[in-house]
């Protein structure tokens, strides 16, 4: 969602809940797997894995937003975002169930017993998990609203505000300490995003005039959706982090809970928002292979991060995010007729610098030796 708590950072949409859980899966199973997979030449292997991590993380961060933007503004029948969120949650749940099955050495009896002991026999725990699950479902729906109304590059930059919201909620709810330079980086991040929002507003209007879809381009609505989504991301991530600190369930069991509860909540949201349309046109109306690619990236992005981040660090994740912003800008110019303004260049540069600062200057926690 295999990290220590101080590595909490906000990453890309659709993978939020998985990333948070990665950072607290420090159980024996992870250590045993690491020992079993230990390379013969650790230094060379680690260097290669870090390089691969950077490439995969960058491509995942950029691809999700670019492809999501494409399927929301292209010509043709528009799929319903609420159904896509449900499919994504279902895929995450099924994948987590498969991983738990693998951890139990493919024993159906042990698998069922594990799920019963950690999920079904603890209804109050499921109620606690339902809070971030609800927020994540709403957030994922908001992301579709945002990316439908903001160009990919602007969305990619603005969405980094989740770093700010996560940091603030961590300080308030978890009493987390930030270094002075991290506080400075958060201010720089806010200023950078504000400057990006001051850029000339011509791309959204052009996109709206050339795309014959039901989506109405509204940059103000997109900005509001991003801000609310960032607030939800920050609160849900920190809230879930607080739950994980006091429980023994594994990261994948939590994925099962989040995915199953998210699917149920998603069905309710679909019924309230698109119930009549689904009944008339069908659940998979407007779907094609590109839509399934978006869902796949969104569903398995967090699982990819679970593997990638094992071999990376905070600075590497910061570089990957910055590189994704640059890729989004370049590709948006070619595919979405995005025009890079002076304001956008300045704002995006400040955002990328702030991400590096926030990842680099993590406060060092002093550890006092304890008597045996």
UniProtKB/TrEMBL annotation:
Family indicated by similarity: Belongs to the nucleotide-sugar transporter family. SLC35A subfamily.
One Pfam family it belongs to: Nuc_sug_transp
Compartmental location: Golgi apparatus membrane
SUPFAM superfamilies listed in its UniProt record: Multidrug resistance efflux transporter EmrE
GO molecular function, one term: pyrimidine nucleotide-sugar transmembrane transporter activity
GO CC terms of this entry: Golgi membrane
Membrane topology: Multi-pass membrane protein
Gene3D superfamilies: 1.10.3730.20
Predominant localisation class: Golgi
Transmembrane segments: 47-67, 79-102, 157-174, 181-200, 220-240, 252-272, 284-309, 316-336, 342-359
Keywords, ordered alphabetically: Golgi apparatus, Membrane, Sugar transport, Transmembrane, Transmembrane helix, Transport
Name the record gives this protein: UDP-galactose translocator
């Amino acid at each position: 969602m295999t990290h220590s708590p101080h590595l909490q950072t906000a990453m890309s949409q659709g993978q939020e809940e998985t990333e948070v859980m990665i950072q607290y899966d420090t159980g024996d199973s992870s250590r045993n797997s690491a020992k079993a997979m230990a390379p013969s030449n650790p230094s060379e292997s680690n260097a290669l894995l870090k390089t691969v991590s950077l490439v995969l993380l960058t491509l995942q961060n950029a691809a999700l937003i670019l492809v999501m933007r494409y399927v929301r503004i292209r010509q043709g029948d528009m799929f319903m975002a609420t159904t896509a969120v449900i499919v994504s949650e279902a895929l995450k749940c099924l994948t987590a169930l498969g991983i738990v099955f693998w951890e139990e050495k493919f024993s159906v009896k042990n698998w069922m017993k594990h799920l019963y002991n950690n999920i079904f026999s603890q209804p109050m725990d499921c109620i606690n998990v339902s809070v971030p699950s609800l927020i994540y479902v709403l957030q994922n729906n908001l992301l579709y609203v945002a990316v439908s109304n903001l160009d990919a590059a602007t969305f990619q930059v603005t969405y980094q505000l989740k770093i700010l919201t996560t940091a603030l909620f961590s300080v308030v709810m978890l009493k987390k300490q930030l270094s002075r330079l991290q506080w400075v980086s958060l201010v720089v991040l806010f200023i950078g995003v504000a400057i990006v929002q001051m850029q000339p507003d011509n791309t959204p209007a052009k996109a709206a005039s050339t795309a014959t879809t039901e989506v109405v381009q509204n940059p103000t609505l997109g900005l509001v959706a991003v801000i609310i989504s960032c607030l939800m991301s920050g609160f849900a991530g920190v809230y879930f982090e607080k739950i994980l600190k006091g429980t023994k369930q594994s990261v994948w069991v939590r994925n099962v809970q989040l995915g199953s509860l998210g699917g149920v909540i998603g069905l309710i949201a679909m019924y309230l928002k698109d119930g009549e349309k689904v009944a008339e046109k069908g659940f998979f109306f407007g779907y094609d292979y590109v839509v399934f690619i978006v869902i796949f990236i969104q569903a398995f992005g967090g699982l990819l991060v679970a593997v990638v981040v094992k071999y990376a660090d905070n600075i590497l994740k910061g570089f990957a995010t910055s590189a994704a912003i640059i890729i989004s800008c370049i590709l948006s110019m070619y595919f979405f007729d995005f025009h890079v303004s002076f304001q956008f260049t300045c704002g995006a540069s400040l955002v990328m610098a702030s991400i590096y600062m926030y990842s680099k200057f993590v406060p060092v926690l002093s550890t006092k030796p304890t008597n045996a």
